[in-house]
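Re: weekly structure request thread

Next one in the queue (140 aa):
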Amino acid sequence: MNALTRWVPRLIIALAIVHFAYALATPNSWADMAGDGFWASAADTAAADYYKREYTLYFFAAGILLLALGTLARTLAHATGRFPAQVGWYLIISGALLCVIEFPVTGGWLMVAIGVLGLVAARRASTARPLTEAAAGLDR
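Done, posted below.
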């Protein structure tokens, strides 16, 4: 397993942690949502802080999804010795969408950069040795 294959899942997990920290550290609506009992607390479009509630939930949910993507990529990389190229493409597509919608100030650029690194890692691993050798555990 090459160094990039080890590091890209870590970078995805680090980005997830940044999302969690951003959702919790920036001005948010957690207290207001808790006061409303959480149930449908972000669905009231007439609420004065509706957009703050959506913003808070967006960053937290994105953190959960990035954490899932990073840990699954790490598990696959350890099992096969290769970084899954699909994960790189998912990050590039998601990040590019964010870059187009929120241009130019967005964290989507990080997703695109990590996705490109993921594709490079996947490409390096595929040219280094066949998948069957890594899957058979011969790299240990």
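Residues 106 and 130 are 38 Å apart (CA to CA). The two ends are 10 Å apart (CA to CA).
Next request, please.
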